[in-house]
Design a protein that fits this description.
The chain contains nine helices and no strands. Helix 1 packs antiparallel against helix 6, helix 4 packs antiparallel against helix 8 and helix 5 runs antiparallel to helix 9. Helices cover about 80% and strands about 0% of the residues.
Length: about 260
């Protein structure tokens, strides 16, 4: 019970930071033009690329090696499974590509905004598991060093979640969604962290062995959305604001991931 409460507190903080990032939509009082919309989409793509590498793939390799396994196997295997899963989802639930002449599937299909929400939400699941597991281990051992490490992990994840919440909410707002709905979508993407964090505490032994695969799976899914949806739409037309957005999002997320460990 103690570990469950600690995990709830740690993952609750990371969720709150996602919601705080999504709340940035309330500070944009005017409708942005097409160029700024592309910059927001590029920013989301850059954040997701950096998060895939530093928050997911590298930790997947490290976690697998800590478990005495070959690091690249779950990283590559999980990544491939994530890509295939999103490709399959694309076929089962078709959506429209940005160009009018590239219409696919039926009108009930997903748009790129739904894929963006899904990918970042999927990415938050293993992050919530990692934070929940860290607090669970700290609570059961009573070790102050493990507790400090868990707090540092939650702090780092939380600060990283801030731009991720904004990366969902801002493009949704620029695509015409109301501020309230865009905020709720951005915040909801982080709700899976406390849910799966507490589930991890209850089945900690099983989750730890498959965590490297889950991390890499989320990375593959995120990069699929970036390559298939975000970057193509961010670069429609002659403006280079999409490129600048990608670079800015990547650099910001890379700095946060590396500096916060």
């Amino acid at each position: 019970m103690n570990g469950l409460l600690w995990a709830a507190g740690g993952t609750g903080f990371t969720f709150a930071m996602t919601a705080l990032g999504a709340a940035m939509v309330f500070f944009f009082k005017k409708e942005a033009g097409d160029a700024l919309q592309k910059a927001f989409l590029g920013f989301a793509a850059g954040v997701m690329i950096a998060a895939s590498v530093w928050s997911l793939l590298i930790p997947a390799i490290d976690e697998a090696e800590n478990l005495g396994k070959i690091g690249w196997i779950p990283a590559a295997g999980g990544f491939a499974l994530g890509v295939m899963f999103l490709m399959g989802l694309d076929k089962v639930m078709p959506y429209f590509h940005p160009e009018p002449d590239r219409q696919e599937g039926v009108r009930r299909g997903l748009k790129h905004s739904a894929m963006l929400i899904f990918a970042i939400t999927l990415h938050n699941i293993p992050e919530g598991m990692a934070v929940g597991l860290a607090f669970s281990l700290a609570a059961t051992s009573g070790n102050s060093v493990l507790l400090a490490s868990a707090i540092a992990l939650a702090l780092g994840m939380g600060i990283q979640n801030f731009p991720e919440g904004a990366a969902i909410a801002l493009p949704l707002r620029q695509s015409g969604m109301s501020r309230g709905k865009a905020f709720l979508c951005g915040a909801a993407s982080g709700l899976v962290e406390p849910i799966f964090g507490m589930i991890t505490v209850l089945i900690a032994g099983t989750i730890q062995t498959i965590l490297p695969w889950l991390l890499a799976f989320a990375a593959g899914a995120m990069l699929y959305v970036v390559v298939e949806e975000l970057i193509p739409e961010a670069h429609l037309g002659k403006s280079n604001l999409g490129t600048i957005g990608v670079m800015a999002g990547f650099v910001l997320m890379m700095i946060l991931d590396v500096a916060l460990g």
